[in-house]
Design goal:
By secondary structure, the protein is mainly α. The protein has one domain. It binds protoporphyrin IX containing FE (HEM). Protoporphyrin IX containing FE (HEM) binds next to helix 1, helix 2, helix 3 and helix 5.
Length: 149
């Protein structure tokens, strides 16, 4: 198994990055949909359209992409000589990944509130949270590519 991982390292890493881009696209786009949805009248045609867009983005893209990021990331972490666990970059990266997973969880909760016409948060809350995944992405990419410590 370890020999296979070593041989497939660059293919697994390519798939990991593809899954990361898909997950990130959703984490950046979904709160943007919430911003506009918060201004739509519950029960209106516009609100019902946003519900469909949010459901498809979450179920068809974000959820499978997140699962793929984790499976491929764990395979990479298990590949011999890829991660030196005594260095700091991997721990900062995993902490930021935990933050991103929490954001995904929060967005799922908000999606359910909109789906049940129970949203009470104003647009500015979603605008603010829209920046969080971008900030975490910057930290993760610098850690895993530059490995500064
Ligand atoms: C449980 C989640 C994750 C684990 C266990 C994980 C683990 C890893 C490992 C071990 C590598 C190989 C590093 C190397 O080749 O030196 C890697 C590569 C990479 N990861 Fe992750 N990762 C995870 C999630 C993420 C997320 C959420 C992002 C971005 C937002 C990300 C972005 C990247 C990038 C860009 C690379 C390629 C780095 C390079 O080629 O130098 N990863 N990941």
């Amino acid at each position: 198994m370890l020999d296979f991982l070593g041989g497939a390292y660059l293919w697994i890493k390519s798939l990991h990055i593809i899954a990361v881009i898909s997950w990130m696209a959703g984490l950046l786009y979904l709160p943007r949909l919430f911003v506009y949805h918060a201004a739509a009248e519950p029960g209106s045609q516009q609100s019902e359209t946003f519900k469909v867009m949010e459901r498809r983005l979450l179920r068809a893209i974000m959820n499978p992409a997140m699962v793929a990021v984790f499976i491929l990331g764990i395979l990479l972490a298990g590949t011999p000589a890829v991660v030196d666990w005594s260095s700091g970059w991997i721990w900062v990266k995993l902490a930021a990944v935990a933050g991103m997973s929490y954001l995904h969880h929060v967005y799922v909760r908000w999606f359910k509130d909109f789906a049940d016409d129970k949203n009470t948060r104003p647009q500015r809350v979603y605008r603010m949270w829209n920046e969080a995944p971008a900030l975490l992405m910057v930290i993760i990419v610098f850690m895993v590519v530059a490995k500064p410590f």
